[in-house]
Design a protein that fits this description.
It is a single chain. The strands form 4 sheets. The chain has a 7-stranded mixed beta sheet with strand order 3-6-9-14-17-19-20, with no helix packed on it. By secondary structure, the protein is α/β, with parallel strands linked by helices. The termini are far apart. It has one domain: 3 Solenoid (UDP N-Acetylglucosamine Acyltransferase, domain 1), CATH 2.160.10.10. The protein is globular, with a radius of gyration of 17 Å.
């Protein structure tokens, strides 16, 4: 394997947290991932019995959970601790949020079922991809955003306040505030009134 990190004394986890290329073999990252799997499994089980009593588990899993924010399980994350969910946001079933980089979800958002928030990036070149290089770019969802069911938000994307992303859209670039974007790749089709 080529020496990708010659002269770089950081661990792969340190490179990951800096947003640089890394290989996902760091033991600390693996332990954080296992923690997340345990907590999301506990959250799903507890929610089945009593959603209110499950909230402390969700608070332990996520970096921040705003007041009156609600997430229906199942929820799938890489680490959880790099996810911020704003107050009064509602997230429907089956969110996949791969938080290798930070994911910030604003206040008063509506997120439909089967939405994917994907921060990881892999090389286009064959050999580095075969060697398991990856990095991640943060995702930011503004306040009062509606992500329709099945929408996919790609690495590095920001969706502006008050915007709506249509069901099944694949968002590959930033969406300005107050817009409706649909399609694959998503494109803005109009500005929204009163946004």
């Amino acid at each position: 394997m080529p020496e990708y990190f010659a002269g770089d004394t950081r661990t792969n986890r340190e490179r990951m947290l800096a947003g640089d290329w890394y290989i996902s073999d760091d033991p600390d990252s693996w332990e954080q991932f296992r923690r997340a799997v345990r907590l999301q499994t506990r959250y799903t089980a507890a929610y089945t019995e009593d959603p209110d009593s499950a909230r402390p588990i969700l608070q332990e899993l996520l970096g921040h959970l705003g007041e009156q924010a609600h997430i229906r399980p199942p929820l799938y994350v890489d680490y959880g601790s790099y996810i911020t969910v704003g107050a009064r946001t509602f997230i429907n079933y089956n969110l996949t949020a791969l938080d290798v980089a930070p994911i910030v979800i604003g206040e008063d958002c509506q997120i439909g079922p089967n939405v994917q928030l994907l921060t990881p990036v892999h090389p286009l070149e064959a050999q580095p991809r075969k060697d398991r290089l990856e990095k991640a770019l943060p995702i930011t969802i503004g306040d009062n955003v509606w992500l329709g069911g099945g929408a996919i938000i790609c690495p590095g994307v920001t969706v502006g306040d008050n915007s709506v992303i249509g069901a099944g859209a694949v968002v590959t670039r930033d969406i300005p505030a107050g817009c409706l974007a649909v399609g694959s790749p998503a494109r803005v089709i109009r500005k929204l009134d009163n946004a």
